[in-house]
Specification:
The complex is a heterotrimer of chains A (331), B (321) and C (290). Chain A has a domain at 1-96 and 210-331: 3-Layer(aba) Sandwich (Rossmann fold), CATH 3.40.50. Chain A is built from 12 helices and 12 strands. Chain A has helices at 52-59, 86-92, 104-107, 114-125, 130-143, 149-152, 162-174, 192-209, 220-226, 244-249, 254-261, 301-305; strands spanning 8-21, 24-37, 41-45, 67-76, 79-80, 97-100, 180-184, 212-217, 229-234, 237-243, 311-312, 318-319. In chain A, helix 5 (130-143) crosses helix 7 (162-174) and helix 7 runs parallel beside helix 8 (192-209). Chain A is globular, with a radius of gyration of 20 Å. In chain B, strands 1-2 form a two-stranded antiparallel sheet. The radius of gyration of chain B is 24 Å and the shape is globular. Chain B is mainly alpha-helical. Chain C has one domain (15-289): MetI-like (MetI-like fold), CATH 1.10.3720. Chain C has helices spanning 2-6, 8-15, 17-39, 80-116, 118-132, 136-147, 151-178, 181-188, 193-229, 241-249, 258-285. The two termini of chain C are 30 Å apart. The chains are: A alpha/beta (331), B mainly alpha (321), C mainly alpha (290). Chains in contact: A-B, B-C. Chains B and C meet through helix 1, helix 6, helix 7, helix 10 and helix 11 of B and helix 6, helix 9, helix 10 and helix 11 of C.
């Protein structure tokens, strides 16, 4: 954590984003830290309701009332976005950091043509004239695999299939050559066959541009194929992080273990999914101690009393567990 | 497209036919118009003769057949009161009503859309709350009472506007309208404002609801993630989407204006077809009532059709089928 | 009860100025209408109690006002305040009864259309569609012109225009409910329709119906007032607020504004209260209902 700080593209430090609702304060993100270097893909993993999307929106400064960033830093090249202010954030959004949303059916404006929606990014962030912008849009659409791109600029989103729309969304996200792309469940809403195409496309495009990506998903199978690093979130906190291969091969936190076990294994003759027992607890009034203990097969007396801090396991990995799994140990 | 037009045309004719049936039945079951046209001291023979002339001695289906075939020939019968063709009576007064309705709609739209957009874009603002309270007032007030209060205040008390009548008219393309004379505008302001209030309130509330609904959509957040300003997102991406539901009720509102014009015209002694309808109801002048209803039904059906066409222009997802 | 007090609904109610104001107006109106006639000394429709010497007295704070008549008197020496209390009774009675009748008939027709489908459904829904493409006031006006004045006739006319919204809502819910597998299964297992309606359809449709019904009372009060103002609503022997305004309108140009302005304010207070509360209900109970 200390060694990487200098060359990290984005460093999130102790981010806390809370939602103040009638029923209490939802600490959706409660002290999350991580870093991403240039050209890296980081997987941000957890069950729904775990605060993953809120992290993404916090980075872009798109948290709307009743939500609020209560504390922490979000450093882009050392510049703190939490205190940057809206005008500066607007320059950054779309140009330095862009976002791909979950559902391509709803993230495109149904009344504007694809061309208009692409053009908007270039008008906001470049000085190109109309002809040059159009050329750039056509080139980008082609590079995300949309044929007859020049003709399709005049088409409306509803004239595209779901997978094609997500390609358009990705094209929009890439248009201004951002250094970081936040992809929030980019394939969840798509057919399985389309999913892998889109993931492949994203990986290619990121690599070709030397950009970084935060891939937010509940699906460990997706990140294990895509990401260099993985950060696992549970109840608004980081419970484990490490390089993808090591983390998947030998998870240290029982929650990560549970997530891995619930990936369907095609080689298994009895493909019955193992689910993590229980449900995500009510985040508004978490009991003291470890938030995962009620669902944890390894929980002991200490877990109910003291919240485990995120501790380094070795140079590259850390986990927030009093009794982390040892490599090779069964769950 | 052609198939759609045919289908719509059949639908429209069906609606008009149902209306004609209802109007005919209601008129047949209520009261005997024969006493409207015979003198008070008429003999049995005279009454029987009048009945024959009116076709009232026939069976109901035959009467309906006569009714509908004359309608189709544009023969709506003579007004019992004016002894003139009922159709021409109504058509004569139509421009007065249409001009008032159009001015009222214009006032409503010009006021409601910007205020509704503002209130929807800033739902928690103080000004928005005032706007919303005002609009709720607008749907809670009896329109005729507002008209009265306006007459009392602006015409009787302040004397700024005339309290009744249509003022001078000029002729445009063969239609007499008060919209081409200053005096005419002077006369139309109060009634048009009165008439516009309810529609204004409803359009405002729809616009606000539309804006608030749209603000929650993913594409709004996506547009902000591109770096667009909140204002740009609201007006470039939000407004058009928000106005779609407003357009869908536009036709209904135009219909409401025509309907409520009857009351406004009565208060302001505006010589339109609405006032003629109310006068005809008092005098049980059945042919005039029938023409009014059939004509208004036709207008409504056409308006709804036009609104559907406009709808397809705004929303590319809608195709005419 | 305690669970109601602790509920989010109640909490939001106590935080909502408009909801409190709205319900206060409604409750105040109902109280005034029930207790009102006992509070005023004069029965405005008892000719014996009227004195022509008292006619056209302005409200008490104006020159020539009379402390006996807070809001002034009309041409017969009738106390405007007393007339309002009596008239509001008729207005509110018509609004409530027509709402209940519309709700019962509309719900019934909606259930029938939803359950039996086919031709019955098409006929009911086509009628509803056609009716909805015409303004309620025009339909009511036409019906009244055909049947003549009377409280009962106003009720019929209002019910004839009011049933449609209920029928459409109930039909929609019925259709989506009976499509559900467990309802289908229950049907196959011999659960009687009445029970399906009671257990599955009604609970789901209750919330929107409450919202519609609340706002409809206000709409009906306004339509009735318009009809009566035009002289095709209630008879002069049973003057509602709308008829009071009409009577006052005839003398407005003589500057006698109070006989028409105050009844109008009374209508506004009631309908505004209903709409404030109805809006709150709609936002709380069913944010999607437009």
């Amino acid at each position: 954590m200390t060694a990487q700080t200098q060359n990290a593209l984005l460093a999130v430090r102790d981010l806390r984003t809370h939602f103040h609702t009638f029923a209490g304060t939802v600490k959706a993100v409660n002290g999350v830290s991580f870093e991403i270097g240039t050209g890296e893909i980081m997987g941000l993993v957890g069950e729904s309701g775990g605060g993953k999307s809120v992290v993404g929106f916090s980075i872009l400064g798109l948290i709307d009332s009743p939500g609020k960033i209560e504390g922490g830093q979000i450093l882009l090249d050392g510049e703190d976005l939490v205190t940057a202010g809206e005008p500066r954030l607007r320059q950054i959004r779309g140009r330095d950091i862009s976002m791909v949303f979950q559902d391509p059916m709803t993230s495109l404006n149904p009344l504007h043509t694809v061309g208009q929606q692409m053009d908007e990014v270039l008008r906001l962030h470049t000085d190109l004239d109309a002809a040059a912008r159009r050329e750039a849009c056509v080139a980008m659409l082609e590079s995300v695999g949309i044929s007859r791109a020049a003709d399709r600029l005049g088409a409306y989103p509803h004239q595209f299939s779901g997978g094609m729309r997500q390609r358009v969304v990705i094209a929009i996200a890439l248009l201004a050559q951002p250094r970081l792309i936040i992809a929030d469940e980019p394939t969840t809403a798509l057919d399985v066959t389309i999913q892998s195409q889109i993931l492949k496309l994203m990986r290619q495009q990121i690599a070709a541009r030397g950009a970084s990506m935060i891939l937010i998903t509940h699906d460990l199978a997706v990140v294990s194929e895509m990401a260099d690093h993985i950060t696992v979130l549970y109840c608004g906190k980081v419970v484990e992080r490490g390089p993808t291969r090591a983390l998947i091969a030998a998870p240290a936190h029982p929650y990560t273990r549970g997530l891995i076990d619930s990936i369907p294994d095609p080689s298994n003759r009895h493909p019955r999914l193992r689910q993590i027992p229980g449900m995500v607890p009510d985040i508004r009034n978490l009991p003291p101690g470890c938030a995962f203990r009620a669902r944890c097969p390894r929980a002991q007396a200490l877990c109910a009393v003291e919240e485990p801090p995120l501790r380094a396991l070795n140079a590259a990995r850390s986990a927030a567990c009093h009794y982390p799994l040892q490599p090779g140990e069964p769950a | 497209m052609f198939g759609y037009l045919i289908k719509r045309l059949i639908q429209m004719l069906l609606v008009l036919w149902v209306v004609s049936l209802v109007v005919f039945l209601m008129m047949s079951f209520t009261g005997d118009p024969v006493f409207m046209i015979v003198p008070i001291d008429a003999t049995e023979d005279q009454i029987a003769q009048a009945r024959r002339i009116l076709g009232l001695d026939q069976s109901l289906p035959v009467q309906y057949w006569i009714f509908i075939t004359s309608l189709l020939q544009g023969d709506f019968g003579q007004s019992y009161v004016f002894r003139q063709p009922a159709l021409s009576l109504i058509v004569e007064r139509m421009p007065a009503t249409v001009e008032m309705v159009l001015v009222a709609m214009l006032i409503a739209v010009v006021v409601a859309i910007p205020l509704g957009v503002y209130a929807g874009a800033n739902p928690k603002g103080r000004l928005s709350r005032i706007i919303m309270a005002g609009s709720l007032m607008g749907v809670s007030l009896p329109g005729f009472w507002v008209g009265m209060v306006l007459i009392y205040f602006f015409a009787v008390y302040l004397g700024w506007f005339p309290s009744s009548g249509r003022g001078e008219t000029g002729e445009v393309l063969g239609v007499r309208t008060s919209l081409v004379t200053a005096n005419g505008w002077h006369h139309i302001i109060l009634p048009a404002v009165t008439l516009s209030l309810a529609t204004m309130a409803i359009l405002l509330r729809m616009t606000r609801a539309g804006m608030m609904e749209v603000a929650r959509q993913d594409y709004m957040k996506f547009a902000r993630a591109k770096g667009a300003t909140r204002q740009d997102v609201l007006y470039k991406h939000g407004l058009k989407n928000a106005l779609i539901p407003v357009v869908t009720i536009f036709g209904l509102q135009l219909g409401d204006l025509i309907a409520f014009a009857t009351i406004t015209e009565t208060i302001f002694s505006w010589p339109g077809m609405g006032k003629l309808l109310i006068d005809s109801i008092y005098r049980a002048d059945r042919p005039v009532i029938v023409v009014y209803l059939m004509l208004v039904a036709l207008i409504f059906v056409v308006i709804n059709f036009l609104v559907d066409l406009v709808y397809t222009l705004i929303d590319p997802r809608i195709t005419l089928k | 009860m305690s669970s109601f007090v602790q509920s989010e609904f109640f909490h939001n109610y106590t935080r909502s100025t408009s909801a409190i104001l709205g319900s206060a107006l409604m409750v105040g109106f109902v109280l005034a209408v029930t207790a009102g006639p006992f509070l005023v000394s004069q029965n405005p429709y008892d000719i014996a109690g009227l004195n022509l010497m008292d006619s056209y007295k302005p409200p008490f704070w104006m020159d020539g006002g009379d402390a006996r008549f807070l809001l002034g008197t009309d041409g017969q020496g009738r106390d405007v305040w007393a007339s309002i209390l009596y008239g509001a009774r008729i207005s509110l009675f018509i609004g409530l009864v027509a709402m209940v009748a519309s709700c019962v008939i509309g719900t019934f027709l909606g259930l029938v259309a939803g359950f039996y489908g086919g031709i019955i459904d098409s006929v009911i829904m086509r009628i509803a569609d056609i009716q909805l493409s015409f303004p309620s006031i025009l339909i009511a006006l036409f019906l009244m012109s055909a049947v003549g004045t009377g409280v009962d006739k106003v009720l019929i006319a209002l019910t004839a225009v009011g049933w449609v919204v209920y029928a459409r809502t109930v039909r929609g819910t019925t259709l989506s409910e009976i499509k559900k597998e467990y309802v289908q299964a229950a049907k196959v297992a011999g659960l009687p329709n009445a029970k399906i309606i009671r257990k599955h359809v009604l609970p789901n449709v209750m919330t929107p119906l409450i919202v519609i019904a609340t706002i409809q009372v206000g709409t009906f009060v306004l339509i009735e007032a318009s009809l009566s103002f035009l002289g095709v609503g209630v008879p002069i022997t049973q003057p509602s607020l709308g008829l009071l305004i009409k009577n006052g309108f005839d003398v407005l140009f003589s500057g006698l504004w109070w006989t028409s302005v105050f009844p109008g304010l009374a209508i506004m207070a009631l309908v505004f209260g209903i709409n404030l509360f109805g809006d709150f209900l709609r936002d709380e109970l069913n944010p999607r209902l437009k």
